[in-house]
Amino acid sequence: MENEHISSAFDTDLEAVQSQIMKMGGLVENAIQLGMKSLETRDAELARQVRVADGAIDALEEAINEGAARIIALRAPTAVDLRLVLCVIKISGNLERIGDYAKNMAKRTEVLSRAAPVGNGMGTLRRMTRAVEVMLKDALDAYIHRDVALAADVIARDVDVDQMYNALFRELLTFMMEDPRNITACLHLHFISKNTERMGDHVTSIAEQVIYLATGKQPDEARPKADTTTSAGAM
Amino acid sequence: MENEHISSAFDTDLEAVQSQIMKMGGLVENAIQLGMKSLETRDAELARQVRVADGAIDALEEAINEGAARIIALRAPTAVDLRLVLCVIKISGNLERIGDYAKNMAKRTEVLSRAAPVGNGMGTLRRMTRAVEVMLKDALDAYIHRDVALAADVIARDVDVDQMYNALFRELLTFMMEDPRNITACLHLHFISKNTERMGDHVTSIAEQVIYLATGKQPDEARPKADTTTSAGAM
């Protein structure tokens, strides 16, 4: 934590809210990991825990929003300070959405447990989910350390997640065509993978905000990584 | 505009900020349309206008943020009212990002003007951009009217944008393999299409917030539309 120049009441107030962001980030990373695990191991009890734990994530978002509103009301921050407070609000909103997608993943454990496994679809989904989890961890590290290079790398990695989503989508189509009994399970897996892809979008938003906070500029020139890998047939 | 029960000072203050959101939305829709047009017609002067107009979008976001901060400071809203103010802040943030992507599109007009046209890549990009533009218009209409069904439809349409992005990506790969002289132009087009896909993500976020505002619940059960079209070979 960068707490070497906590001088004003504003900084102290903000520090408290920032630590809630980090706590929330940890819970969300956990939710992604356990949500995926519950799905893969068909563990209904674990799925239930993930669903229950989402309440704590939502409560933290509320607390962060109220904390941020209190700072605005008490300290009347302007310019850069206001931008920082608003950023905290936006990041907590992104984290809350990611947590919801993880909860939704866990919710599908029960219905997917009743279906036969479809090819290696679950393995692809696990790799995709793991990639998003690491992106989230890195985006939050980039936020703490205002690490622009790391944030730009996170944004670039979102392209990989998209490509994993596309590959899985084609894989699922094949399974459905092979055996119509796979269709229900495949539709659920497609739904989950789309939500995982959306988690990646929210992580990208967090990383974009880190760049904005650190540089005052939006990362609209950040080049997607696939630009350099397309000719290698990355799709 | 739903202004039938403007009763409190809070509502009046908020109404002013909301109308700035609608104004910002109009400017952003315009930027998408003209950014795409400048690219397609290789119109450097139009591209310049889009870049300049982005300043007004950024200024509106600043004004909305300051207006929202003023409301929080003066009215100390809690619960539902606070949620509404924070939502306005988040939506203006989404609009600002979309505007940046449109500006970035215009910025590439000059470099793309120097290259030979690549197949029908531009046509696919135009359709994709047009789809996002209509999604944005609908998301803002859903916001004004708190129209949950329309917002859910916008979220579902994001899947179509993803699939257009994938189709274009494959198309560009083919052009690059056919003739290496196409590579530079294709990389630019790929970059633009990825940004257009990201515009779609931000529009989706706006639609999700409309559902949250109207129902108090996150739309984590909203099913991607492709679930019903996959077997028809939509990819």
From TrEMBL, chains A, B:
SUPFAM superfamilies with a match to the protein in the record: PhoU-like
First-listed, main subcellular location of the protein, grouped into a coarse class: cytoplasm
Superkingdom, natural source: Bacteria
GO cellular component, one term: cytoplasm
Matching InterPro entries: PhoU, PhoU-like_sf, PhoU_dom
A Pfam family hit: PhoU
Domain PhoU: 21-109, 125-210
Keyword Ligase: no
Subcellular location: Cytoplasm
Record's keyword terms, sorted: Cytoplasm, Phosphate transport, Transport
Keyword Transcription regulation assigned: no
GO biological process: intracellular phosphate ion homeostasis; negative regulation of phosphate metabolic process; phosphate ion transport
Reported function: Plays a role in the regulation of phosphate uptake.
Subunit annotation: Homodimer.
Family: Belongs to the PhoU family.
Protein name, entry field: Phosphate-specific transport system accessory protein PhoU
Naturally occurring in which organism (per UniProt): Pelagivirga sediminicola
Gene that this polypeptide is encoded by: phoU
